[in-house]
## 1
Amino acid sequence: MAKRTFDDLAIAGGLPAFDEPLHVGRPNLPDRAKFHQMVDQIFDRRWLSNRGPVLVQFEEALAAHLRVDHVIAVCNATVGIEILLKVLGLTGEVLVPAFTFVASAHSVDWTGLTPVFVDIDKATHNMDIEDAARKVTRQTSAVMPVHLWGEPCRPRDFETFAARHGLSLVFDSAHAFSCESEGIRVASFGSAEIFSFHATKVFNSFEGGAITTNDADLAKALRLAVNFGFSGVDQVASMGTNGKMTEICAAMGLCQLETLDTTLAKNRSNQAVYAQKLAGVPGIQFRPDCASERRNYQYCVAEVSQWRDQLLKVLIAENVLARRYFYPGVHKMEPYVSRDPQLKMPGAEAVASRILVLPTGTAVSEEDVARVAEIIYLALSEPDRLANL
Ligand code: T4K
């Protein structure tokens, strides 16, 4: 039943709008029959991992889609970042944004490097290049910007910045599959980029990820490193770990590539419906489009100027599991906050206090979006009552 007033909201005693939870990050699924057929072939071959034929085909398909020379599929993006940082032989400090998923910093720290937090630009939500310049020390060896929300982070500017300071440059592109900056597909900026194909991502392989690069020597070293350094039977040519993607994950990825256009179109239309239904409503704004970028709209990001946490309570009562990604900022999480409890990141903290990520993707219908928008509209239309929740 449609809700017409604040009193119809579940938090005020009405019935929840959704019987089942409406998630942020519900996986996009490919054609089931096609996937099952590929799984049957994998069973018939009895070849499950260690760079089997499906993985090779997947890497080739990804290289074509991402318009990059080399793709090294990995078991997840976190391990992918760790492998890349190790292979690059970095030491000392790596600049990372304070507002990102915790894995961006953890992967640096886990590798024995020190993540140094850089504030974000409140308008773009991406690493503030001027603050990055202030954070460079003699110990800095690399900078790892993130294309947050799949919005390219001015990668060309970071290439200039890294060259000027003599730093390695890698991009955490976990969110930016199929995105472009000034006509160039995200995948070939810097020394390398790392994508996540986690279940909740716009493009998933259950778990998984990929490192992309145009540097043939780097690609060769990465390929060794993801497989314990093996260069042949009984031949170990380098240090390495186990970062391999399985055949079944590669099959999922190949099937997902075929439905990617539908997924991207759905994300774009869901975002448009949210923005249109809530246009002009005081207190909420969606990410503005940028003519020079192609985005994947995998996160429907609302900025709520006041009473964000109360609005979240309203939504959860309706079974809408919106998320405060990436609250409260990585510098406020352990182990980083204990290392430097006084560290302030004004841009990251301001943005973290406003973000509400709303459900989207192929599991979320236009009708669902309209109902969520209606709930938000009713909640924001009575700010005094919202404030007191
Ligand atoms: N860098 C950045 C910038 C990243 O955002 C990430 C990952 C990484 C690096 C590392 O990539 P990976 O190593 O993961 O490849 C999720 C994901 O686990 C994580 O991959 C992602 N970023 C992050 C932004 O989101 P959580 O803690 O939000 O996941 P969780 O379990 O709360 O799931 C989110 C929602 O999705 C829930 O409401 C339930 C729903 N869901 C989830 C799964 C797994 C489903 O409906 N079905 C599912 O199968 O971290």
## 2
Amino acid sequence: MDKLNWEFTGMEHDLESILLTGEQIQSRVRELANLIAEDYMADGGMDARGPVVVCILKGAVMFYADLIRFMPIPISIDFISISSYGSKTASSGEVSLKKDLDGKIEGRVVLIVEDIVDSGLTLSYLLRMLSARNPRSLKVAALLDKPSRRRVPFQADYIGFAIEDKFVVGYGLDFDQLYRNLPMIGVLKPECYEP
Ligand code: PRP
């Protein structure tokens, strides 16, 4: 097992470049976790249970797990699953709910955690849906932002990195369900997704 590394498995060879190393990601995620925690504490708006931090499955799992691990405040966790229709490399913007939150969010402080904002359609849909449940506040933290891809206006409250319009995988982001477990984020070689 000691010999097993990304080089050896060959997954890294499918990347044409590494956009963000695991170390860069970890460092930014720690900064964001502290910033978010400070904002909630300064707000005076937290109850004893703290915010409900919501993970949007599946792409956000890595970011979510690291972010909450470094947030030094009480939180509760919940998960939501959205299905967006489209090709394997771009969403069509049509979204539907596959798994709802387990808990109620009325009157609660809520932070939604997402891996990437692309067209903005997924988060617009989610914010509309969750706002209707009357949370005390509703904010969004997204690891990556591709502002040039927006089809609807959308601005996350917290962003890890703004990136160009390249097809990226790793650290939760997939192509056809692969590459999510890479610790870094890289640009996928076109021959890996073009027919
Ligand atoms: C991806 C990503 C976001 C959404 C962003 O999800 O995780 O949820 O697309 O795109 P948008 O801003 O254009 O709506 P995907 O449907 O690929 O599912 P996954 O999270 O399971 O990978």
## 3
Amino acid sequence: MIDLTLHEKAALVAGGTFWETRVIESAGIPSVMMTDGPHGLRKQADGGDHLGLGESVPATCFPPAAGIASSFNPELLERVGRALGAECRAEGVSVLLGPGVNIKRSPLCGRNFEYFSEDPHVSGELGAAWVRGIQSQGVGASLKHFVANNQETNRMTVSAEVDERTLREIYLAAFETIVKREQPWTIMSSYNRVNGEYVGESHRLLTGILRDEWGFEGLVVSDWGAVDNRVATLAAGLDLEMPGPQAASEKAIIEAVRSGRLPEAVLDASVARIIALVERGGAPVTEFDVDAHHQLAREAAVESIVLLRNEGHVLPFAADARIGVIGEFARSPRFQGAGSSQVEPTRIDSALDALTARAAVEFAPGYALGRPTDAALAAEAVALASRMDVALLFVGLPEGDESEGFDRAHLNLPADQVELIAAVAAANPRTVVVLTNGGVVSLEPWHDSVAGILEGWLLGQAGGSAVADVVLGHANPSGKLAETIPLRVQDNPTYLTFPGDGDVVRYGEGVFVGYRYYESVEVAVRYPFGHGLSYTTFDYSDLVVDADEARVTVTNTGDRAGAEVVQIYVSAPQSPVRTPERELRAFRKLWLAPGQSISVTIPLDARAFSYWDVATAAFEVAGGDYVVQVGRSAHDMVLSAPVTRPASRTPGKLTLEASVTTWLAHPVSGPIFRRAAAGATGGDDLVEGGASVLEMVGSMPVRRLLSFPGVPVTEKQLRLVMALANNRLVERVAKLFSK
Ligand code: BGC
């Protein structure tokens, strides 16, 4: 290892500038640059800010995570990742700060546009593909924000109070998949606290789980400005503080090492990881193909669009249809979210331009963004709608309504836009709404009044062309919702706890996030997770399920080529813990020509049948009969097949404090207990008044049996059985002899 003084080491573990690591000239250590991220490069030439304020170099703005997640297409995300990596190399950037794989706990989170899904499997699969793509170019990813950063309100101080099973199954799961599979070069620790402790100061999270359990080999970087106590964060495993330089942190580290409070070896480990990062990375390439990347952004945007509703096959529009294009968003697209991820696009396609070039179009803005209702604009739009064959109405959230840094208070579209939808729909029954929104918006009360709805999310710089491709039928929509659209925000399981009280937010819904809740409680939603229509139709048949895979045949029964996402859900049998009605455990996107059938085999790993067991601190399989289902969404199951899985768990150690039920379930003590009880009650079946005696006392700690007169059992007997069950018989017998 390079020989550095204590001062140099203390300097190196914080940035040298807003975006770069520290140069240590005496030791010949250069700096490397990290920039946002995630869906485009935000390289600031001068100075820096993490609020999306200052200018940055032009870069391709791909669809943000909320959009591209609807593609359910890891291969597409990998290609986008490769393009992002290439743009980084063209700009000499070593690490791209993304992707963000935080779970959409509440639809109100202001930063949901930057996250993939309410489902950890989707987030993990898509995030892994994105990281794989970026890193294939010799550029590092920074997986963020680790962990339980699910809201913007008080994000720098709030404590997410979350139980261990929920943390493992929902909030850590995507990080786990990606770390184990892709080894991201860096992970960004989040601002918030988890169960009272800053993530950056949590040795359990940053070292115990991340490194010791999952085998993470990369570097942990702080979110920008997240470090509260530098010595505590170093000790926990946070290698690099950003931004820098940080004179106070340097001083504190030096003092802590000198006084022996911080072992120098801990500092050395972080220094080594920073040097390893600096030494990584490919030689810069000079340029990237701006046109090819724009084309990829368009393809990604097409796959991000979700066709929610298509009554009477209003879409795609006939080639000669006269289209009334309405809404300022058609002319001035909002294609990305606000905050640190804001990219300076290389170009912008508006839907209005793209449609005008290919169809008979007239336009009326209908409303002015950020200004009060304008009756004249609305009247002009309604008049246009009534004289055209179809009305294509663009509505959505203005930029000020959602952003990094704050959460939304409701899911509503601006009131003037809701009024406009009603008026336009009344004027033309063939009205199609195109939505622009980073987070989910309410489709009430207007949903039923329009013939078609396209969920356009934020689609990146080529989104306008992509919308034209879809409405004109040049592309067939294939997106599926990666998050539920509820009927009312009040129906969401986090409604009463989001964003918490002061600096505490209790994740009281546990693992029942998003569709896991709606499906378990049978709460109706507007559109379920996984929903999305196509211009063609698909049939499913021949589901065959084995212990480790599901096989199913998908047929395109319509007359257009199209893509379908096969969604495999698993329902668990009665488990030691309460499990959701069903959980998405695998998916696969398939492209099918008209009439084509594909038989696809989708692996199901052990995790597809497991839950986090707090007793064994591991994922365990509850033995029993599972149901594997193929769904068109989390709500609409088309095929199902049972499969039996053995329990993974070796029986835990018996103790006198364990319940009678636990002792009965144990392969050693169970039969002994049953025989003894049968003898005591004088019968074989132990049934009294319809209920088993042993079941009636099932929750009683075994030790308490001793305090009931007439129960013919002694402590000595219990200890002997325990020794037998816990494989301690030899010791126990030896002890008997030594007395
Ligand atoms: C955001 C990060 C971002 C960083 C640097 C922070 O405020 O939470 O996602 O990467 O700033 O801009």
## 4
Amino acid sequence: MGFDNLVFGKKDAHQLLEEYGSPLYVYDEVTLRQRCREMRSLLSYPRFRVNYSAKANTNVELLKIIGSEDLDVDGMSPGEMHLEMMAGFPADRITFIGNNVSLDEFRYAVERGIAVSVDSISQLKTLGEVNRGGSVCLRINPGIGAGHHAKVVTGGKKAKFGIAVEDLPKAQEAAAQYQMTITGLNQHIGSLFLEPDAYVEAAAFILATAASLTSVEMVDLGGGFGIPYRHGIEPRLDLARLGTMLDDLIKDWVARNRPLLVRTEPGRYVVAECGALLGTVTAVKENYHTYFVGTDIGFNTLVRPAMYDSYHEISVAPGNERPYAEYDKPVFVVGNICESGDILVHDRVIPCCQEGDALIVHDAGAYGFAMASTYNSRPLPAEVLITAEGEVRLIRRAQTLKDLWW
Ligand code: LLP
């Protein structure tokens, strides 16, 4: 770290903030395309598709790029499906993977020809009301989970997601009641793994489950592919090793069973690293021997550190000419929200900051803007894309005060 030479295409952080306002989300097209390609080539198994899990970031311009890289998408709500269709995804490249959704939400998907996955027998019956005679995927809960924080572990006996495997016979009965065919199984055990083992174990489990359900033509192994938020400390996920382990499993399964379409559902891996969040140092102080760097990046703009104690690397672009120096002890970087939990960086040694410096929060492309809110009545920030040619393009305008009411 240090006063990195942080250039965003042809501009620097200060120029971008001046032009588009602070804070500001910035995305890099080249990195986004690269991550898409890495995911697309995870398996050598030919009948393999990637569903980008759009909850991580639904900016329509990013979705268009992701679509152009031959990824399909998941939608979690009519809102996500709507944005995906705006980005040009046809219905047959979208899967609605809902959780506790309403009859109307199922109808929205069915009327448009979007495949639906349900995650309880109760939801299966609700879907049956609008999809009699159609097909359905079941989200199973394999009874194992994984993730970077208890709040993102989505498999396991205490998680709210999925159908317990022992209930599958009941799910089959319910599907039969509505003449629905169970054509797919999916699962997602949790978010952010950097070692392949738990994912491969869960993949083996869902494949074993699919073996006896002969109508199943598609198995979706889930998302959760992690990225190294701690630069230079955490290793990158070894995709080559993971891919080989999965390929072996799948090829063996297909040889012993029947043809199968295999999907994965990455969210974070696709978009996290292409995004940075820029902001401005608005105040600095030392209170009772603790340094606080105050910024306009509150948890309304990036909630991950406050919600999950998540770590993001942070760089400082000084607003004036001065020699480089670091704080002599760890500091807190805090936002402009009226809550003491509004902490962006906990107890970390960073470069000394002054009012007017720009801050760059790295790897903010996933679950950044997507989870932003207008808490404390702060309008949502703008988003810009640095194109492959290095140009800056506004891809969502900042909200104004007028947008805060009706
Ligand atoms: N599929 C399903 C059914 C999911 O629920 C999720 C994420 C994904 C795929 C994509 O997971 P990913 O590849 O991004 O790990 N807000 C949290 C993460 C919550 C993930 C929720 N489900 C965070 O900021 O870390």
